[in-house]
Design goal:
By secondary structure, the chain is of the alpha+beta class. It contains nine helices and 17 strands. Strands 7, 8, 9, 10, 13, 14, 15 and 16 form an eight-stranded antiparallel β-sheet that branches. Helix 5 packs parallel to helix 7. It starts with a helix and ends with a strand.
Amino acid sequence: MTRERRRRVRGEHGVVLPMTAAMLVVLFAFTALAIDVGHVYGVRRQAQTAADTGALGGGVSLVFAPSNLSLVDAVRNVKWFTYQDLNERPPTLAAWDAAWASCTDPLKPAMYTSTAAATAAGDPWNLAGAATSCISFTSNYQRMRVKLPDLQVNNFFAGAAGYKSFKTTAAGEVEVGFNYPGGVLPFGIPANSALNTELCLGTGNALPNYLNFCEGGAQGNYGALDPSFYGSTELGTLNTPYCSNTSAGGNTTENRIAMATAIGIDHPLGALPNDTTGVPADGSFYINDRDRCTAASPSSPSFLTRPNEIATETGVSKVAQGVRQGLYEGVAAAVGLPAQRGRLTRSTNTVSVHSDWSPLDNTPLWTFLTPGLNVGSSLTTQVPSACDPNQAWTGDRMLDCINAYKAGGYATVLFGRDSDSDPVNGIYDIMRNPRFGYVPILWTNFPSGQSQSVQIRRFTAIYIQTLSWGCNGTKCAATFDPGQPLVNDAGTAIGAISGNGTSVDAVTVLGIPPGALPLEARDVAPGGRNEIGITLVR
């Protein structure tokens, strides 16, 4: 090695050690940063889980105790569940409650107009709770928002650089809504028709003899109801309660019937309990749909009030307009109520019946028969001969099938076709069709004369079957059953009808026996165990 090279090597002695030390410092710094960043994300994930859990816990209270008390329970549950779910939290329940008292929610959506009031001590939050603006509700108490108080969390290593702690928060929102599709339609079945399979609503004109069970003005053997609209975030009717004992702007009987026909009544209805003699309980149990809509109560009108008493409507022209708009013409937008397509136009399987209307659903009820049905006498595994799945079906034969099924005491699931093969969701093919829905069965017969309040006994599933137009005392100009051609009074197939004044004169529906639907479908029906569900929406 030359003298010059030895001199150069001796000059580089001691360089590696400082460079290694510097690299170790950088490595440790990045490691510390990674640990602190991971800690930040972990705490934020935990905060989001706590916010969601608290919102779901509060939502359960709204479902199972729909009253002013339920709001108190919801607030207590939110504070309790969020505290239990957090590792990085204040040391005591009192400190956590104080954090809620000072909490703000600047990003709260405008729909949340009501905030949590102070609460007395009660399970599970066993201390007096402060009011907070970070637990809030929509005006109809269908949605709840939970925004956690800011959480001050210490860093592990960033404190050496002056960043000793950080703040984080999270928000969760839940919606309480219907588990059943199709909605409750604004029609009531009186006590004297409760056992009928075929039900008909006449809307004014004289009808031929074969539709004599539709006679009675706007009654027939079932009648129109005039529901209030409490406001539903789910259906887009939240902005303005439309109470059925008031009238202003678009809040008219016709519009309310039309909207409820198109999308269903926008809040759950309840059934009136009976006393030991099997008659309706006394008036102290009545929850009137109109009264709760206009009551000056913190929870009225509330999505979860579940009225069991509702007004009838006997005005022929109002019912006729509401029914035809709700079924096929469509409903114009009004203040607080969005425009809606006619109920029977919401289908991919349609046929044109009028030159000016959207095509109507053309799906017959037999489409939804359970695959593999067999004729026989076993009441739980077979069906009567009138329900032979291999026959050439018509609307009349479907009526005969249901009547024979009921008369024979069968309980075999008749309409169990399930294309998505998901029994957990409780939604079968028939329930996705716009002709399917539910209607209340009343404790009494339908009142005559002016509109009156009636009490609800229970609910039944129905399928909208026949529409008749242009009727008089001897015939109807056009009749339409799904799965069959549009026909005149002689039963001859005709083309699409036309004319501006063509109003539906009779609407028949088929009542579906409870046993004909799968158990999961019965559970999510109105009055069923799982009729109301809770969903995280944010």
